[in-house]
Amino acid sequence: MTPRQQAFLARPFALGAEPAPQYPPVPVPTLLLASLLPPHVVAVESFGARGGDWRAGLHPAEIRAMAHAGDKRRREFAEVRVRARQALEALGEPPVALLPGPRGEPRWPHGVVGSMTHCAGYRAAAVARRSDGTAGLGVDAEPHAPLADGVLEMVADPAERAHLAALALLRPDVCWGRVLFSVKEAIFKAWYPLARRELDFLEARVRLSVDPGPEPAGGFRATVTVPGPLPAAAGRWRVAHGVIASAVEVPAAGP
């Protein structure tokens, strides 16, 4: 089992054992993920959970794909796909089914790249056209809470852990281990559709930066240590309303 798979298996214990976050009233629209991406990328996001029939707004093929799933999985699947379909509509795309691929990755329409994410109380999707210069996207959201014991050692190498310790002296109000986790998840979501293989947590080395000002936000740069289509990546992260969001856009190669 790879380190990333081990950490992923630890996530339900890290997240599921936590009480559900209590979110303050959020103005509409809330630009959390959208604030991390360039203007040609369309991001749609929502806080809270959608009530009613989970099938509302889904394509018939998506409903069939979830026929044997549990209620929690169905609602997560449905809510994030409703956001993705809204993003595609804003991009001018027809309402096609967004079925999962072999590793659970969404299958986007031809010429479109995208990424979805959800955590307790938050759903988001981002899409862009390849013709606008985007080769890949990766977005992730996590609750702003510490990682479970032992997970950081699977996510970060010693140099990264020392880096997080230094950041904690600068901003002790930020759950830096979870920020790093989210950033690496965003990188992996951008990597997989391009490389068609998974990336372990320790195969991406990340350095985080912090913006001046009171809000927890900043950038990141990453080096991928295995051969592949994404030797380096850069993006943004932000904490708002109890959620960590991170995003990376992979520009298309020049002529």
From TrEMBL:
Positions in coiled-coil regions: none
Question: Which residues are recorded as binding CoA?
Answer: R73, R81, T117, H118, D140, E185, K189, L199
Q: Name one GO cellular component term.
A: plasma membrane
Quote one Gene Ontology molecular function term: holo-[acyl-carrier-protein] synthase activity
Domain 4'-phosphopantetheinyl transferase N-terminal: residue ranges: 64-128
Q: Which GO terms describe its biological process?
A: enterobactin biosynthetic process
Q: What residues bind Mg(2+), as annotated? A: D140, A141, E142
Transcription regulation listed as a keyword? no
Keyword Transferase attributed: yes
Tell me which residues make up the 4'-phosphopantetheinyl transferase domain.
136-215
Q: Which cofactor does it need?
A: Mg(2+)
Keyword list, A-Z: Magnesium, Metal-binding, Transferase
Protein's name according to its UniProt entry: 4'-phosphopantetheinyl transferase
Species:
Kitasatospora cheerisanensis KCTC 2395
